[in-house]
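Lab channel / #folding
Pinned by the channel admin:
"Please post every new chain as: sequence first, then the structure tokens as a reply. Keep commentary short and put observations after the output so the thread stays searchable."

First post following the new format, from NK:
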Amino acid sequence: REDELDLVQSKIDLKLLNRFNVLRDTRQMAIVEVKDSICTGCNMRIPTYQIDIIKKKADIVYCQSCGRFLYYKGIEE
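Reply from TO:
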């Protein structure tokens, strides 16, 4: 398990990994779902342009309010 974790972490950009670790340590959840245009970590509305990016998986998107990584699990339109 430790070897697998090391292998995965070695393939992740160091800045992203550090941000993830800080968020996980300070906010409990570093990655949260967007539901009904709302960040489920802090309950703030996510701008439409960011939701489009998340749905297209075009880039990594953070909540502008709490800084968490965002993902969308809904049905694609």
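NK: Helices lie at 2-10, 14-27, 48-56.
TO: also worth noting, Residues 2-71 form one domain.
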